[in-house]
Amino acid sequence: QEKIIIAIDGFSSTGKSTVAKQIAKHLGYIYIDSGAMYRAVTFFAMTQGFIDNEKFNIEGLISKLKSIDIGFKFNEDLGFAEVYLNGENIENQIRTLEVSNFVSIVSAIPELRQQLVLQQQKMGIKKGVVMDGRDIGTVVFPDAELKLFMTASADTRALRRFQELKSKGENVLYEDVLKNVQERDYLDSTRADSPLFKADDAIEIDNSNMSMEEQFETILKLVMAVL
Ligand code: C5P
To answer: What number is the ipTM of this complex?
Structure first.
């Protein structure tokens, strides 16, 4: 059976990664979280002092881009690949609200997008990949065999993200999470380079009222129809 590329785009916290992991596991495909790559660079910018409260030294970060090596390594116990920055596992450090608050500013840098998109395209050369993000069906893999565009109400998404952060022990307020989700949606869909939008040939899925099982079954049917 020929392997395909499945591109999943959508707004923040729409459950893209959850279903992408399930589908990849079911098909024996590789799951790639492109957002983790932008988060890793944001984490780098924060720890190297390029982002300091309100000040963001964009030029400084751009000058260091070539020295940033982002990789993934499969973790057998977790069942998915964790993200590495210059050889260091930073999977747990990139999911904080602090990183989320800066990532959309960092991800708007064209020089950075160019570098990461190239790396993402290389990871998909042999197909058999499920990748989620904001520009996968539009820029990274415009010829993907299946493109999905996930949506859900901002409240639903903020509540999901809030519960996720809480369960990880982060002390956050629901209002702050909602604000972050809305701000990222706005920045991601209005930036000049590769803004988030639904590709013409993407199938839109609103999962506001879907259980995880329903979502998986719905998407699996779409996958089977193109395989
Ligand atoms: O998917 P996740 O919410 O972890 O992505 C974090 C951020 O990374 C997004 O809000 C967006 O700014 C950026 N991103 C992007 N392009 C992608 C994936 C993520 O610009 N393909």
So the answer is: 0.99
